[in-house]
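Encode chain A's predicted structure.
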Amino acid sequence: MDPRDLPLAEPNRQTPRREELFGAPAADHDFDPAGFDPVDLEDQSFAAEARPRSPVKRGFGRLRDFARRVGERRRRARQTRREKALVPAASIAGRALVTVIAIMTFLAALTAGAAMLIADASSSWRSEVAREMTIQIRPTQGRDIEADLRKTAELARRTPGIASARPFSRDESEELLEPWLGSNLDLSELPVPRLVALTLRPGAHLDATALARAVADAVPGATLDDHHRWMRRLALMANSVVVAAALIFALVLAAMILAVAFATRGAMAGNREIIEVLHFVGAADEYVARQFQRHFFRLGLRGGLIGGVSAIVAFYLTSTLVEFLRATPGGDQMEALFGGFSLGSEVYVAILAIAFGAALATGIVSRFIVLRHLRDLS
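Encoded structure for chain A:
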């Protein structure tokens, strides 16, 4: 009998169907064999990586990864150097020392700039005074002072070395006395001396003694003033200011050296065990001193630049203020004392030299103190 001719068995009704357990499948979840794609069964990230990229994108990606690795290595190297540094790169004491050096440099630059400004003004005063002389004629009873004034001026003009001779009128002579006597007095009854202003010819030699003798013989009561006494006073004042500025500069430098010395000793005290271990295991003294020298040189350079730039800004603001007040009486007096209050390039060079000198002095002082301490340990 052929098995294919046997009747089919009835299905087991005790086994629940899928629809009875889970319900009918939703329409959007129906399986469509025609739309089946095996790639959908893989992870989307792998499919994205499997897409081919252009050579330009691959090159930029490699450069970005390389730059990231280099930056990470540099960051780790800086962190390692910072952790292994003998002297901490940043500390409260270091910031305080930078502030002290900046203040000292600022004061030293102001002192040096003011001294150079006054010295230049004094030189200008003396050069102007040296180019002029004055003949003073006192009123004498029985003589015509106006005639004596003209006679003296003509005598001066004929003298070799005199470029011009200008007699002052009575009103001009009285105006010269107003700063001392005031402007509300009637000076017509007073015997006000008359003046003749002489201008010397540049480069010419003038025999002042012969001129004074000739003036005294021609006009009784006439005297020649060559302003040498005022020039000596101006020179003495300028030299006194320069000496005082030099003393102030020396005091500021001494205070800065003491501050650096105390800061160096404090840094050594904080790293005393490390320094002693390095010394006893055979580390060269120059190596330890060089570490401190580099550290304090950087601090000194930072403070010196801050103080020097601050001094330059202060001078610039002062010159701007003087320029703004030039037309006022106070500005005229300031200009008469200090000229135009304009600093030349040599002043700015001197300020920058002071700033770098402060940095060098800081490094040298710290090196000397560390070497002396290490020799004491030996």
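The beta strands are 132-137, 162-167, 194-200, 222-225.
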